[in-house]
Amino acid sequence: MPVGTDTGSETADVDVHHDLPDDPEAVIAGSHQIDFELLDPFGTGADADADVGGPPPPRRPLFGFRWPANPSTIFWILLSVSIVSLWCVFFAVVLSPVQEHRSQRNLYAEIRSHLVAETVPTGGDIASGTPIALLQIPAIGLHDVVVVEGTSASNLQNGPGHRRDTPLPGQAGVSVIMGRSLLFGAPFADIGQLQSGALMTVTTGQGTFNYRVDSLRRPGELGAPPITATDGRLTLITSEGIGKGLDATRQPLYLDATLLGPAQSATAVRPTSVDSSETTMRGDSAALPDLVVWLLLLIATVIVGQWLQGRWGRRQAALVCIPVLLALLWLAAESASQLLPNLM
């Protein structure tokens, strides 16, 4: 019937409108929910708001390394570097003369026993660091200073060194002895004060030889006149400071002295060349691996100390670790000083 049909239509219309929500925003929110469910078919449960406008996930650090963000960590790192640097300066200025004095005392006892036994080397390829002579320069207060074989930075930490490719003192030819003027006792610090005519004495396994100072010279100045094949000359080399402030630097200083009396002949063939680390104003790069090892052991000792502190307590850990730390600091500073020019 028409009437019944109209009534049914009205009823159907009422049912449809009754199922829809009255709030239009709910309709929009519902459609959004359906869309995000379609975008997340595997049910990961991702929050729609987080995907759209939330903060991005943290980025993975490059190569797995993350710089410590804690300011206290950075402070302790910088403090440790500063302490090691200050220790190296303290060692060079205060402790290196103590080390040189101890080395000289031991070397003096060694060479005296060899002089008595007449076993001091007088030629050939002498081992680096071997004591080969006693040097005396009364005008500047040098008495019984032991000269060792070799002129590398490590050799000159123990005292003046004889350049291995030159004749020994007292022999014919030009013998070269190099010494420090700033660190490790600075035995040649006053060489520049010597005047022409001053006397010096060198004692070797071949006897005692006297020299008379001729002149001082610096880079760029004329060298000493040549000598005959039977004469002897001794050249002392050290360094002196020039300039002031930021322009301050150091340059070689040479002193030439003539042998008074007959020269001795070499007893065996001498080396004809030396490594670059044994030349004037050069450091010893071979000390760099040692320095790295000592620094790594320092770090390892600190880590072990932290672990022992947790197991034994602070006092017990300090008793074990502090002597080790001081020994490693000494070795590290000694290796670092060998990287500096050998005449400093």
Helix content: 25-40%
What's the β-strand tally?
A: 8
Structural class: alpha+beta
Q: Roughly what fraction of the amino acids lie in strands?
A: 15-25%
**What order do the strands of the largest sheet run in, or round the barrel if closed?**
1-2-3-4-7-8-6-5
Distance between the termini: 123 Å
Which CATH architecture of the domain at 83-278 is right? Beta Barrel
CATH topology of the domain at 83-278: Sortase, Chain: A
Low-confidence stretches: 1-18, 26-40, 46-50
Mean pLDDT across residues:
84
Order of helices and strands: HHHHEEEEEEEEHH
Computed CA radius of gyration, to the nearest angstrom: 40 Å
The gross shape turns out to be: elongated
Largest sheet: 8 strands, mixed, barrel
Q: Superfamily at the CATH H level of the domain at 83-278?
A: Sortase
Which helices and strands occur, and which strands form pairs?
Layout: H1 2-19, H2 24-39, H3 48-53, H4 71-117, E1 131-137, E2 142-149, E3 161-162, E4 173-178, E5 199-204, E6 207-217, E7 232-242, E8 249-260, H5 287-312, H6 314-337
Account of the protein in words:
Strand 5 and strand 6 form a beta hairpin. This protein has an eight-stranded mixed barrel with strand order 1-2-3-4-7-8-6-5. It is built from six helices and eight strands; from the N terminus they run ααααββββββββαα. It is elongated. It is about 40% helix and about 20% strand. It has a domain of about 200 residues: Beta Barrel (Sortase, Chain: A). With about 350 residues, it is α+β, with helices and mostly antiparallel strands.
